[in-house]
Amino acid sequence: MTTIQKVTVFGTGVLGSQIIMQAAYHGKDVTAYDVDDKALAQLPARWEWMRGYYQRDLPDFDAERFDKAVSSIRTTTDVADAVTDADVVIESIPENLELKKSVWAKIGEAVPERTVLLTNTSSLLPSSFADSTGHPERFLALHFANLVWKNNTGEVMATAKTAPEHFDAVLAFAGEIGLVPVPVRKEVPGYVLNSLLIPWLDAGAKLYQGGVSDPEDIDNVWKIATGAPKGPFEVYDVVGFNVAYNISRVSADPLKKAFAEETLKKGIDAGTTGLGVGEGFYRYDKDGNNLGAVESWKQENRG
Length: 303
What we know:
Number of strands: 10
Number of helices: 12
CATH architecture of the largest domain: 3-Layer(aba) Sandwich
Helix content: 40-55%
Strand content: 5-15%
């Protein structure tokens, strides 16, 4: 067992809220931070959304344990209050380098000397903002996959400045919160998972943005020909448009950049950002079952 019991999570969006629940459900004392009360007010709906998935996906789901986890989560909009007694801080905010530097600078000024500092960045190198924390020797990455309770890998990746004992402690902590710890031995953008996933998603995006085929047809070709359970646009719905947008919008590839700015941004502006809200490239019922493709994404309807 590690000595990591008090967990603070920065960011309560689709994945941040999942990290919060994953830690709370496994007995950690969790504080959830976001920038304003409006963001925190969305958490009860996120808990109920997750409850259905936990019931469906976990054979040993315990409703009483879930309720206890929900009631134990503390929320705050004050940085100092969020980290004052934290054993670990996990950051899950948008993939924007300058934003991460700014937030980590504030966290770094307020944390106790014992606190381990973790980023859940999907595509940025942790070393590109480690110094912003003021404590690079205890800063590293713990990367969660979307639908954490089910897709429960925990990729642990250090920077050249991370003290080895923190790498080992975070591997152990990942196991304590129900993850399968995956040591990533060399710093690389995207870890193992996204190094494999992002090029595949990009290929689907470029086929669509280039006018080659519709999302549903691209997905069906992949699933039928390979036996895979999901195609790239179904996975975009799981990942969420906001995460994918922040990765693709800075691409030098014109098709990938256009996919972010013209396609994903259209869904973001409409509030239809994927599985978490019940509609993305497909529509979903309250249990997450796919109800079929959204017609407006067809090539003939793009306008």
